[in-house]
What we know:
Number of domains: 4
Mean pLDDT: 83
Amino acid sequence: MRHSFLTLAGFVLALSTDGLAQPAITQQCPLAYTPGGTLGVTNTCTYSGQLLSLVWRPQLPDGWVLVSAYGDGHPEIGLGGILWTGAMPASPVTLVYTLGVPRDAAGEQGLRAVVEYQLSGMVNPTTAQPTPAILPLFSPDPDVRAIHVSSADYVAGGTLRLTNRFEYSRRLLSLLWRPILPAGWSITSVSGAGSPELHGDEIMWLGESMPASPIEIVCEVRVSAGASGPQEIRATVDCQFAEQTNPATIYAVPNPLVIQLEDKGIRALLSGPTEYEPGGQITLSGRFEYAGTLLSLTWYPRLPFGWTLVSVAGNGNPELQNGAIVHSGETLPPSPITLSCLVQVPPDATGLKTIGASSEYLLSGRINPRTASVQGAPLTLTNAPPQGRPRFSLVAHQADGRMKLGLASLPTSPFRIQSSVNLSDWATLLTTNSSSHSLEWTDPLPATAAKRFYRIVVP
């Protein structure tokens, strides 16, 4: 399609041969990228008339991948790019997509995009390039890194905790952290290494010397009462080192940090033992509570190096897929969903170990899955000697109200598990022995009493 240009009072208006004004399309993102990290690109399309279709096709450097997209009109990632499949949103249309940067990315890179659109009155769709046509990107100083993370999804009118971390290897002379928050949000307090102070919207260190790397800062943020939908938090960091004449500016990653409005009724929990035996096995228990219609659920356990998932069981028949636990049936079980997974400990395991987890879910009415923080994670486990005084290593409530117990350092000779409601009258619930010095057992009696006590009795 050919275009002509009309100049009016110093302004240039681009017209198609159909007599329709071309949309104004822009793209922007930080100048620096982090190898192995993510990068957010913000785009806008301002148009007049009736928009019939819109497709955004990012053109990425080799190895870079499109991770997610959100914005006006609920855009979706498809084979042809980022698509709008429902009713077209009103002008201006805002789109934010996140890119995954490969770990071996280096040097200067460039981002391009082709935007295909069709307005009412046009016979066929046409294409345009955003302004600027190329977004130049540069690799940051590999010895300097700024990171920020959110404690959880946000609650409108509530508070949110941001944890910031600055890593460096040279002599640091000054540091200035500038969080860029959504409209109406504000920082109420800061704390961290080197006693940072809040001056307006900037976090400063006013001491004679800077704290050692890494510098961690915690910000308490007040969320506006009218906040809704996905929100972005960015941060610029001014840092000056001994060999520099002037401070340099870098961006905290991920950029942007995208946080979601908390889904009501969502709760994920992880429980497990406090001790492990080299070469033995442990059992982890998960529980996911929700409200509404659940379309998908995936757990991502983060195990110590060399530890492996052996099996998984639970309501809804969860399956192991490439280290993740997936509920893949057409209909997921009602809330709460519980699971139990068996983990093999390597024979050479020693010392303190941690086990983390995250859960990803999709509720009906949403386009993309969301991640829920897991209460109880990370679990901390210590290397338990095979012999010693018997003790409880796990006490956990089951979904049906019964109590699950983990026992460690057990003798190979018979022993008894007893319970009481008053610490005076004890009843034997189980008499058994254990060749592996550990045992997990669930009390068959329902939790009818307000309190119940347990003890191990060795003859």
